[in-house]
Design a protein that fits this description.
Blueprint lengths: L1 E11 H11 L1 H7 L2 H10 L3 H19 L12 E5 L5 E5 L1 H9 L2 E10 L3 E10 L3
Antiparallel strand pairs: 1-5, 2-3, 4-5
Helix pairs in contact: 3-4
Amino acid sequence: MSILAHGIDLVDSARLEKSIERTGQPFLDRVFTAGEQRYCEFKRKSKLQSYAGRFAIKEAVMKVLGTGWAKGIAWTDIEVVNEESGQPRLLLHGRCKEIADEQGITDIMISISHIETHAIGSAIAVGDRA
Protein backbone atom coordinates (compact mmCIF):
# COMPACT_ATOMS: atom_id res chain seq x y z
CA MET A 1 0.00 0.00 0.00
CA SER A 2 1.38 3.40 -1.01
CA ILE A 3 0.41 7.03 -0.90
CA LEU A 4 -0.82 7.75 -4.42
CA ALA A 5 -1.89 11.39 -4.22
CA HIS A 6 -2.54 14.29 -1.89
CA GLY A 7 -4.96 17.18 -2.27
CA ILE A 8 -5.60 20.18 -0.08
CA ASP A 9 -8.04 23.08 -0.30
CA LEU A 10 -8.77 26.25 1.65
CA VAL A 11 -12.28 27.73 1.69
CA ASP A 12 -13.25 31.29 2.56
CA SER A 13 -16.34 30.81 4.74
CA ALA A 14 -17.83 34.23 3.86
CA ARG A 15 -17.67 33.42 0.14
CA LEU A 16 -19.42 30.08 0.71
CA GLU A 17 -22.03 31.82 2.87
CA LYS A 18 -22.81 34.22 0.00
CA SER A 19 -23.33 31.28 -2.37
CA ILE A 20 -25.68 29.62 0.12
CA GLU A 21 -27.62 32.86 0.70
CA ARG A 22 -27.84 33.64 -3.03
CA THR A 23 -29.08 30.23 -4.17
CA GLY A 24 -30.40 28.65 -0.97
CA GLN A 25 -31.60 25.08 -0.84
CA PRO A 26 -30.90 24.33 -4.53
CA PHE A 27 -27.21 25.10 -3.88
CA LEU A 28 -27.14 22.92 -0.76
CA ASP A 29 -28.84 20.05 -2.61
CA ARG A 30 -26.41 20.29 -5.55
CA VAL A 31 -23.28 20.36 -3.38
CA PHE A 32 -24.08 18.42 -0.19
CA THR A 33 -25.76 15.06 0.38
CA ALA A 34 -28.83 14.86 2.60
CA GLY A 35 -26.67 13.31 5.35
CA GLU A 36 -24.13 16.12 5.15
CA GLN A 37 -26.90 18.70 5.35
CA ARG A 38 -28.42 17.01 8.41
CA TYR A 39 -25.02 16.95 10.12
CA CYS A 40 -24.27 20.60 9.37
CA GLU A 41 -27.73 21.90 10.20
CA PHE A 42 -28.49 19.94 13.38
CA LYS A 43 -25.32 18.46 14.84
CA ARG A 44 -22.97 21.43 14.81
CA LYS A 45 -22.70 24.74 16.66
CA SER A 46 -21.48 26.49 13.51
CA LYS A 47 -23.21 25.10 10.46
CA LEU A 48 -21.28 27.42 8.14
CA GLN A 49 -17.92 26.14 9.39
CA SER A 50 -19.13 22.57 8.93
CA TYR A 51 -20.33 23.26 5.39
CA ALA A 52 -17.04 25.03 4.58
CA GLY A 53 -15.01 22.07 5.84
CA ARG A 54 -16.98 19.63 3.72
CA PHE A 55 -16.69 21.91 0.69
CA ALA A 56 -12.90 22.01 1.19
CA ILE A 57 -12.77 18.20 1.32
CA LYS A 58 -14.75 17.89 -1.91
CA GLU A 59 -12.27 20.21 -3.66
CA ALA A 60 -9.30 18.35 -2.15
CA VAL A 61 -10.66 15.01 -3.36
CA MET A 62 -10.99 16.40 -6.89
CA LYS A 63 -7.29 17.25 -6.73
CA VAL A 64 -6.52 13.72 -5.54
CA LEU A 65 -8.46 12.22 -8.45
CA GLY A 66 -6.90 14.69 -10.90
CA THR A 67 -10.13 15.27 -12.77
CA GLY A 68 -11.59 18.57 -11.61
CA TRP A 69 -15.34 18.70 -12.19
CA ALA A 70 -15.17 16.90 -15.54
CA LYS A 71 -16.06 13.37 -16.61
CA GLY A 72 -19.59 13.28 -15.17
CA ILE A 73 -18.63 13.96 -11.57
CA ALA A 74 -21.21 15.41 -9.19
CA TRP A 75 -20.50 17.24 -5.94
CA THR A 76 -22.58 14.64 -4.10
CA ASP A 77 -20.34 11.83 -5.41
CA ILE A 78 -18.07 12.89 -2.54
CA GLU A 79 -19.60 12.54 0.92
CA VAL A 80 -18.15 13.24 4.35
CA VAL A 81 -19.59 11.19 7.21
CA ASN A 82 -18.49 11.07 10.82
CA GLU A 83 -17.58 8.14 13.02
CA GLU A 84 -19.09 8.05 16.52
CA SER A 85 -15.81 9.50 17.75
CA GLY A 86 -16.37 12.53 15.49
CA GLN A 87 -13.57 11.59 13.10
CA PRO A 88 -14.53 12.43 9.51
CA ARG A 89 -14.52 9.64 6.94
CA LEU A 90 -14.94 9.81 3.17
CA LEU A 91 -17.46 7.92 1.06
CA LEU A 92 -17.24 8.00 -2.72
CA HIS A 93 -20.21 7.36 -4.97
CA GLY A 94 -20.96 7.23 -8.68
CA ARG A 95 -18.32 8.43 -11.11
CA CYS A 96 -15.88 9.43 -8.35
CA LYS A 97 -15.88 5.87 -7.02
CA GLU A 98 -15.30 4.51 -10.53
CA ILE A 99 -12.36 6.86 -11.12
CA ALA A 100 -10.81 6.01 -7.75
CA ASP A 101 -11.13 2.29 -8.52
CA GLU A 102 -9.55 2.80 -11.96
CA GLN A 103 -6.59 4.55 -10.30
CA GLY A 104 -6.08 1.79 -7.72
CA ILE A 105 -7.18 4.00 -4.84
CA THR A 106 -8.44 1.83 -2.00
CA ASP A 107 -8.98 4.59 0.58
CA ILE A 108 -8.84 8.35 0.88
CA MET A 109 -7.97 9.58 4.35
CA ILE A 110 -9.27 13.04 5.17
CA SER A 111 -8.76 15.76 7.74
CA ILE A 112 -10.78 18.95 8.24
CA SER A 113 -9.97 22.03 10.29
CA HIS A 114 -11.75 25.35 10.51
CA ILE A 115 -11.88 28.69 12.19
CA GLU A 116 -14.57 31.34 11.91
CA THR A 117 -13.27 32.70 8.60
CA HIS A 118 -11.77 29.70 6.80
CA ALA A 119 -11.84 25.93 6.52
CA ILE A 120 -9.17 23.60 5.20
CA GLY A 121 -9.52 20.06 3.94
CA SER A 122 -6.77 17.55 3.24
CA ALA A 123 -7.20 14.26 1.37
CA ILE A 124 -4.57 11.53 1.00
CA ALA A 125 -5.22 8.65 -1.41
CA VAL A 126 -3.69 5.27 -0.65
CA GLY A 127 -3.68 2.06 -2.64
CA ASP A 128 -1.82 0.15 -5.30
CA ARG A 129 -1.31 1.45 -8.82
CA ALA A 130 -2.30 -1.01 -11.51
